[in-house]
Amino acid sequence: MGQDRGRARPRGEESPEPPRPGLAPAAGAARAGGRLSALDPARVPLSLYVHVPWCVRKCPYCDFNSHPLAGEVPEAEFLAALEADLEAEAERAGGRLVDTIFFGGGTPSLLSGEALARLMAAIRRRLPLAPNAEVTLEANPGTFEAARFAAYAQAGVNRLSLGVQSFDDAALRRLGRIHDGAQARAALAAAVRTFARVNVDLMIDLPGQSPAAALADVETALAGGATHLSCYQLTIEPNTPFAAAPPTLPADEEMAAIEEAVEDRLMRAGFVHYEVSAWALPGESCRHNLNYWSFGDYLGVGPGAHGKLSTPGGIVRRMKHKHPRRYLAARAPFVQEESRVVPESLPFEFLMNALRLHAGVPREWFASRTGLSLDALASHWARLEAQGLVEPLAWRIAPTERGWRLLNTLLEEFLP
Question: CB-based contacts of 341: which residues, under 8 Å, 6+ apart?
Fold first, then answer.
C-alpha cells in the first residue's frame, strides 16, 4: 500500500495550503512543451476555503498555520476582517458559482454557532452558491458541544470533518491531543446524528502501533457511522516539537502491514480508496478535496489562507497574511504573497494533484485547466506508459495501479 507515494496529510487536503512548486513572480506567458492558450475561468470549478487560525493547544506534530488561543476567540474583530477579505475575493471571482466551502484550521469548532451563522450569511451575500453546495467544517472532539453542532448545521454546514486521529487514550496522549477516546466517540455520535455526511481523520503508523491497534481505530469509526475516512501517516515535519525530539515510528515492514490491514478492512466495508489518503462509501467523497485534486480553483480567506484562481492570463496564487495579529491589523486584500504559476511548472502542478486520484481525471481537463495542449505531456507519458506506470491517454489522465503506488517516482518525470 503506498510505500512510495506516502500517506501524510498533504498541504491542500482539508487545509489552507496546497502543494506549490515552481512559483515565480507574475510574468508574461511562455511556452511549456505545448502552445499556451488563454484560460476560460468559467470552465474551472470554484471553491472557497476559510481559515480559522486558533487552537486550544498546538499538537507536537503540526506545522499548519495554527496558534494556541489565549482567552476567547476575538469573534467580532475576526468576522469583520473576514467580511472585508470576502468582499475583495468576491470581486476577483466575478460572479462565478461556488460549489464547495471548507472551514479549516486551526480549530473552526472554536467559533460560536452565532459567529458561524453570521459568516455564512456574509458568504451568501457576496458569492453565488450552487444549490447543492457542500459546506464542510473541521471540528476537534476536545471542543465538542452538541448544541454547537446543531447551530452549525442550522447555519448551513452539511458535512463535518472530525479530527479524531485515534480513539486510543495512550496514542492520543503521545500525539499531544486535547481529547480522549470517550470524547472522540461522543463527538462522532453527535456528528452522525446532526450531519448527513461525516468524515473521521485518523492517523496511522503511529509510534508503537500494531495492525490490530490501527484496525481498532478503523472499527470504531465504522461502527460510529462515519461515511468517509481520511487515513494519514504520521510524518515528522520540520520546526515542530516532534522534529526536535522525534518519536520512534514503526519500521517500514510494520508500516506496510498496518496499511495493508487498513486497506483490506475498508474495502470489505464497501469503502472506495479514491485518493491516496481518502476512503469513502460510494457517493460520499469529499467534493471540496476533489476540486483541489482536479486542479480546480479556490478562493482563500483568513490568516494564511491560500487561493488559486484561473484568469485569461494564467493561474494566480495568493497567500494571506499568516499571523492572526498581522491579518487582523491589515486591510483588504490582506495579501502577503501573490504569484503567477509559470507555464513550465504547470504539467507537474496539474499531475501532482490529479494523479493522487485513483481514477485520474478526464484528459480534456489538462487543457482547460492549464492552457496547455497534451503535447506538453506526450514524450514523458510515452516513457511512463512503457514502464506500466500510467494508462494510455485515450480518455483520461490516470496512473496504473502500480503507478499509483509509486507516485513519487512517477512524478519525478515531470519536475520542472
Answer: 22, 23, 24, 314, 315, 316, 317, 349
Please give the full DSSP string across 280-332, using - where no structure is assigned.
Answer: E-TT---HHHHHHHTT-EEEEESTT-EEEEEETTEEEEEEE-SSHHHHHH--T
User: Can you give the residue ranges of every domain in the chain?
Assistant: 23-293
Would you state the cell numbers that stand for residue 388, as one nine-digit string? 506500466
Homologous superfamily in CATH for domain 23-293: tm_1862 like domain (3.80.30.20)
Indicate the range of 29-43, 255-269, 391-405 predicted with least confidence: 29-43
- pLDDT higher than threshold 90 for residue 211: yes
Q: How far apart are CA 183 and CA 180, in angstroms?
A: 5
Q: Give the Cα separation of 295 and 140 in Å (integer).
A: 28
Helix (H, G, I), strand (E, B) or coil at 372: coil
Rounded to whole angstroms, how far apart are CA atoms 297 and 41? 9
**CA angle (385 as vertex; 380, 390 as ends), nearest 5:** 95
- Residue 306 has φ and ψ, to the nearest 5°, of -105, 145
Average confidence score pLDDT of the chain: 91
Tell me the average pLDDT across 375-386: 93
For 203, phi and psi rounded to 5 degrees?
A: -105, 140
Q: What is the pLDDT of residue 145?
A: 87
Tell the residue number behind the cell numbers 514524450, with chain if given: 379
If you write DSSP's letter for every residue of 242-292 in order, what string do you get?
HHHS---PPPHHHHHHHHHHHHHHHHHTT-EEEETTEEE-TT---HHHHHH
Section 70-82 average pLDDT: 95
pLDDT, tens digit (0-9, with 9 covering 90-100), for 148-191: 999 999 999 999 999 999 999 999 999 999 999 999 999 999 99
| Amino acid identity, position 222 | L
The pLDDT tens digits of the residues spanning 279-330 come to 999 999 999 999 999 999 999 999 999 999 999 999 999 999 999 999 999 9
